[in-house]
Amino acid sequence: MDNKKIAGMLLKIQMDDLKDADMLIDYAETIASEGDTSIATALYSRAKTRLSQMEDCKRTIDSVMTRAKNEAAMNGTPLETDTVYSELYNNWINEWEHKLRQKVM
C-alpha cells in the first residue's frame, strides 16, 4: 500500500473542496447582489457542505499519515510528514502547471 500516493490523492480532493467552496461563495455573493437571496442561501449552504467535506478529508489524511509513520517506524525508516506534504505539493503543482501549459500550447 502506497500511503504517500493515497495522501496525495486525498490532498487533491481537499484542494478541490476548497476551490469549490470558494467558487460557490463567489457565485452566492453575485446572485445575492442581483437580489435572489434564496438561491444565494442555497449556494452558501453548498459551500458549507464542501468545507465540511474538506474537514473530513483532512481527518482522513491525518489517519493515512499516521499509518504511514507507523509502517515506516516498523521498517526502521523515519517519515517526516512535512517532507511528504512538501513533496506532494511540489509534484502536484508541477504536474498541474505542465498539464495547463500543454493545453495552451
> How much helix is in the residues?
over 70%
Helix-strand makeup class: mainly alpha
Any low-confidence stretches, pLDDT <50, length ≥5? none
Number of extended strands: 0
Tell me, rounded to a whole number, the average pLDDT: 87
Evaluate the radius of gyration: 18 Å
Number of domains: 1
Strand content: under 5%
What is the N-to-C order of secondary-structure elements (H for helix, E for strand)? Answer: HHH
Main beta-sheet annotation: none
In short:
This protein has 105 residues and is mostly helical.
Structural features, described:
This protein has 105 residues and is mostly helical. It has one domain. Helices cover 90% and strands 0% of the residues. It is built from three helices and no strands. The chain has helices at residues 3-33, 37-75, 81-104. α1 runs antiparallel to α2 and α1 (3-33) packs across α3 (81-104). It is elongated, with a radius of gyration of 18 Å. The protein starts with a helix and ends with a helix. The model has no long low-confidence stretch (mean pLDDT 87).
Record the SSE blueprint.
Blueprint: H1 3-33, H2 37-75, H3 81-104
Q: Could you list some keywords that capture this structure?
A:
elongated; single chain; mainly alpha; 105 residues
